[in-house]
Amino acid sequence: MRTMVHRAKLSMSEEVKHLTVLIVENQDEDRKVIEKILRHPSKRCFEWSVASTLQQALELLSKQRFDALLLNLGLEGKPSLEIFARVALHSQNTPVVVMTAAQNEAVAQEAVEHGASDYVLKDHLDGMLLPRVIRYAIEREQKDEERRRVHDETTQLLASITSILIGVGPNERIMQWNSAAEATFGLPAKKVLGQPLSSCGIAWDTKRVLEGLATCRAQERPCRVDDVVFTRPDGSNGILGITINPMMSEAKEQVGFLILGADITQRRKAEQALHSANKRLEELNDLKDDLIAKVSHELRTPLTSIKEGLSLLLDNVLGQTTAEQQDFLKTMDQDVNRLVEFVNVMLDISKIEAGRMRLQRQSVDPRLLIESLVASYQPLIGRRKVCIDGDEAAAVLIDAERIRQVLTNLLSNALKHTQEEGSIYFHLKRADGMLGVAVEDNGPGIAPEDLPQLFQKFSQLGQPSTGGSRGTGLGLVLCRELVELHGGRIEVVSEVGRGSTFTVWLPLYSDDLALIENFKELRSMAPGDKGDQVGLVAIKAARLVEGLTPQECSQALGQLVDEVRRYVHRGDIVMSVAPHWVVVLALGDESGAKAIVKRLQAMLAESHRYGFGMACYPVDGTGATAIFSRAKERGEKNSNG
Question: Which stretch of DSSP H or E encloses residue 259?
Fold first, then answer.
């Protein structure tokens, strides 16, 4: 037994590694021919070992891994398939090329059918054929090994996937079926592999799955099929959610489909239970809102009567009262005022939560609003000092009455917690398109652990420093709701012993923002069964403001807004838009907008000086800005100056 080392170049483009070959041959002449071929100078890539008996071959195979094996089927006399079988058993996937004489070619072919890589006839051995056969045998084995590796990895991957996975070929036959599919449908892989998806025995809504498959094929993109009813092995029904994904070749051709699915029965039951619970909560919330509204309305009438009666008694209209009686009456009057405030706040909160509160947004000077508020509270302010400072603030887009309500509550709280001779400050500041109105007092402050409770319903912290009555615990809740309804926010900073600062952030005014927000406000109030069509009428008033200063122009447009408001419906929104436009927003279609134009042309003083244009949502645009631009174009055309 000997080992010979030679090299042969098998690649025309680059040097390859030495290929090890085991030659199993007992005929010296044949062995010499083979070695001569492998030793040829042009084939300098081979290293080989020689075994002249089957036993020697098996010993070498147990010690070394060869790239290829040349096997004489007639090793023990007559050519036999048994020789190949014994060698193949020990070859460790080494490609085996069998050799035999021409008259025994049938045996060689049979060996190939049983796993040999190829065969050569000893009568035709030459320097070109043998190296090529060896090389091709090695390449085929490498490809087979790669396929086995990919197959093993795919098998492991499929086994690790907990979701249902079904691979379907282009002919809609099942090619892959993982363990999750077996467990879900109670069908082993051997029963369904190779079977048509339409008739493989899966107990599910086959029609919907095949429709999804057809959609996936036509659109060449994933298709989701929800709520597919199926039957489990135990006979119970469940619900599947599946996704059908197309599998594409490198040439972008469909080569099959991958169906991924999951049992979503419990999820659907949970969703149904959650939906039912939410619906019940909505019903209870509606009942609560109705109860609050009814109770509040029922309380208003007797409270009004009590208030009027107390006023008559306090003013001695119904007879003279003593000083002691006057004290009792004043206490009763304060309690009635608290009840009235409580009822009003409850109604406001109920409206906001039900989405029924309507804002009348307009341009408001925040400093003037604060000064007006402080003036009205002067009797309660007493000797306390109230200051307004900060940058000259631009106008804000707000419902003046609602924000006055917010600031009134904050000022009232500050007064309750500020001693006589104390100070309260209003600070104005701008940031990120918003205006902040801060109300600062130098009262006792709020403990950090109590801050989260400030905006909870019926929460009342501490006692007023001035000894006044405690509130309802709803004031700050209403403040937050009203501010957020404006698109703003409210913040609080406090330190025990050093006072508190509540800051209300409100949107700065711009014509575009006012138009957009009022448009949204109007659409939100549209009856659900009548759609949400909006008509916009634009009135060009250039001649009205010609030659006026900016302040005079603003005043003139404001007067025109007031006049127009007299001739439109109560729910319509009227606003001015610089430099010389007045806009009417109203729910309704084109005929309704035309009726508004006709009415204004007939009722407005000197209406011939104005240009009227109209547009409608959604016919003339998808938003407020678009339909306003369209209405302006028409207003310009219809203007006389």
Answer: strand 254-263
DSSP string spanning 578-597? TTTEEEEEEES-HHHHHHHH
Tokens of 194: 């190779």
Sheet holding 164-168, edge to edge: 174-177, 164-168, 254-263, 237-248, 223-231
CA distances from 339 to 170, 260, 306 (A): 77, 63, 11
How many helical (H) and strand (E) elements, i.e. helices and strands, does the chain have?
19, 22
Q: What is the pLDDT of residues 335-380, one digit of tens each?
A: 877 777 777 777 777 777 777 777 888 888 999 999 999 998 888 8
What distance separates the 2 farthest-apart alpha carbons in the chain?
149
Whether the Cβ atoms of residue 430 and residue 508 lie closer than 8 Å to each other = yes
Contacts of 139 (CB under 8 A, 6+ apart): none
CA distances from 562 to 72, 397, 424, 488, 636 (A): 113, 18, 36, 27, 22
Q: What is the DSSP secondary-structure string of 542-577?
A: HHHHTT--HHHHHHHHHHHHHHHHTTS-TT-EEEEE
Per-residue pLDDT tens digits for 571-606: 889 999 989 999 999 998 899 999 999 999 999 988
The phi and psi torsions of 89 (rounded to 5 degrees) equal -65, -30
Give the chain's length: 641
Spatial distance between the Cα atoms of 529 and 429, rounded to a whole number of angstroms: 44
Residues 71, 98 contacting (CB under 8 angstroms): yes
Per-residue pLDDT at 407:
93
How far apart CA 579 and CA 562 sit, in angstroms, is 17
Phi–psi pair at 11, nearest 5 degrees:
-115, 135
Whole-model pTM?
A: 0.52
DSSP designation for 325: H
